[in-house]
Amino acid sequence: MRLEIRHFLALAVSLPAFAFLMGKVPLLHGILHRASHKLKNIQEDAQRDTLLGCFNRRYIVAVLEEQKQLADEAGISLCLAVMGLDHFKRINDELDHLGGDEVLRSFARVARENVRAGDLFGRYGGEEFLLIFPATSPLPALNTCERIRAQVESHFWKGLPKMGVSSAFAATFAPLRHLWRWP
After folding, report:
1. What is the DSSP letter of 155?
2. Cβ of 130: how many Cβ atoms within 10 Å?
């Protein structure tokens, strides 16, 4: 009988505490959800170039290494394009750095609007950019590069009436199997 009384008293004392803690679960869930959302934003911000909104150098190079390893291991193709704005120093000299920043923003926007879903576009440094084409053969990659080049050249560049903007591309293709690797 004494054991039953002890159990009843323990239950009587712990039940209100349990009810109190259960009332805190939705609050804790909300705090955890907000913290998770903030962490996701921090991770995304760490991958982006703050000026241009595209991927930054650290992230795009890491993705390139991952895609290269995946292409090697799975035997799939991988294309890479390196893009740059021609005569960017002259643009910066004539428009000052704020004008140069605006040209970079416009270029990045034009490029992002013309890449395919699954392609990865990021700033490598200065006015140089990388465009990674996972599991892509050369022709679709070259078509995308040409589309971006044409859009850049036909784009209205505010503040550049006499010189305009052009871009240059260098593309490479990683074949299914490298000849110098042993099976």
Report:
1. S
2. 21
Catalytic site residue from 127, 128, 146, 153? 127
**What is the distance between the alpha carbons of residues 128 and 1, in angstroms, rounded to a whole number?**
83
Chain CA centroid to CA 163, Å: 31
Question: Which tokens go with 124?
Answer: 């490598």
Assess whether 127 carries a catalytic annotation: yes
User: Mean pLDDT across the stretch 71-98?
Assistant: 87
| Neighbour order of strands in the sheet with 167-174 | 120-125, 128-134, 78-85, 167-174
| pLDDT per residue as tens digits for the range 138-179 | 899 999 999 998 888 888 776 665 555 666 767 676 654 443
State the SS3 of 31-42: HHHHHHHHHHHH
Three-state secondary structure call for residue 173: strand
Please, what is the average pLDDT of the chain? 84
Instruction: Record the pTM.
Output: 0.72
How does DSSP classify residue 178? -
d(CA 91, CA 162): 11
Task: Supply the pLDDT for residue 181.
Answer: 42
Instruction: List, in sequence order, every beta strand (DSSP E) within the chain.
Output: 78-85, 120-125, 128-134, 167-174
